[in-house]
Amino acid sequence: MRAIPAIALFAIAGLLIREWIASLTNLLAATLAANLIGCLIIGMIAALADRPRPLLPEHLRVGLATGFCGGLTTFSMLSWLVAGPDAPPPHLAAAYLALSLGGGITAAALGQALCRPQKKT
Amino acid sequence: MPLTLALGAACGAVARYGAGLWLDRHPLPWGTLLVNTIGCFLFGFIAAHAMSEGASQTTLFLAAFCGTFTTVSSFALQSLILRRKNGTGRAAFYISLHLILCLPALYAGHSLAASYLSPGGTTTSHVAPANENAQTSSNPLPSEASAISATCGHIASPSLSPHAR
């Protein structure tokens, strides 16, 4: 239950940062950037949680992963951009979708690799 | 940030957490798939509604709710985990399900609102904009909430609608 306030607060923070990114660039770039950054961070959090001695308390980990990353990233806006009334031509929409989802999965893998504990030689 | 948006964002994330606890224990993370599908449908519906009728506090709440209810980060992490544990085929199946369900869900929500709102009851893919501002910018912003307010201009605040003008 301690995770719920953390999730709520971090989700608001995630939404605010998405707003801030939106103020810096255009719509497509902002959504892509927010989604990729969120995927990178959730990969890092997952790797940190996998350590024998996790660096983050459980409620903070859930708050960051579910709240912050979930608030920062958005599937509904991504879908709106590629399937809504103002969607670009199909080939561009498909490329944007592939970049967002493929890039997101790659970013999450990169985040995990960055924070994975290094093996002692 | 208006309280409505903060409340919507908080409720969306907590609702997704609840759905994840309930459904993500299965071999396939159905919880994330379900929330993304429902969130896309709901956003398509309220975006069309707001473009036609203007933004109310309820639509702003729902827009912020959709923004944090749906997620790409959990989708990406779960796809990675599925690939590692169950192989590439299962991960590809999970990704495909998202594409097959979420995009049509958004279109269905938008079309449903369009047919519901149009006087003759005929389905149109584009809802008539509510005002002049909407004609120049019917494209929502990355935050679904500011999208609605920027599109409709009724409740837009400068800090929430950087692309509106």
Describe the structure in your own words.
The complex is a heterodimer of chains A (121) and B (165). With 121 residues, chain A is mostly helical. Chain A has one domain (3-115). In chain A, 79% of the residues lie in helices and 0% in strands. Chain A has 5 helices and no strands. The longest helix of chain A has 26 residues, at 90-115. The N and C termini of chain A lie far apart (41 Å). With 165 residues, chain B is mainly alpha-helical. Chain B has 7 helices and no strands. Chain B has helices at residues 3-23, 30-53, 57-69, 73-86, 88-117, 132-136, 144-152. In chain B, α3 runs antiparallel to α7 (144-152). The longest helix of chain B has 30 residues, at 88-117. The two termini of chain B are 19 Å apart. Classes of the chains: A mainly alpha (121), B mainly alpha (165). The interface between A and B is large, with 58 and 61 residues.
Number of strands of chain B: 0
Helices and strands of chain A, in N-to-C order? HHHHH
- Mean pLDDT level of chain A: 91
Uncertain parts of chain B? 121-142, 150-165
What is the alpha-carbon Rg of chain B in Å?
Answer: 17 Å
Helix residue percentage of chain B: over 70%
Principal-axes shape call of chain B? globular
* Oligomer description: heterodimer
Number of domains of chain B: 1
For the termini of chain B, the CA-CA separation is: 19 Å
Could you tell me the strand content of chain A as a percent range?
under 5%
**Topology pattern of chain B, helix = H, strand = E:** HHHHHHH
**Low-confidence sequence ranges of chain A:** none
The gyration radius over C-alpha positions of chain A equals 16 Å
- Please give the largest β-sheet of chain A: none
Shape of chain A: globular
End-to-end C-alpha gap of chain A: 41 Å
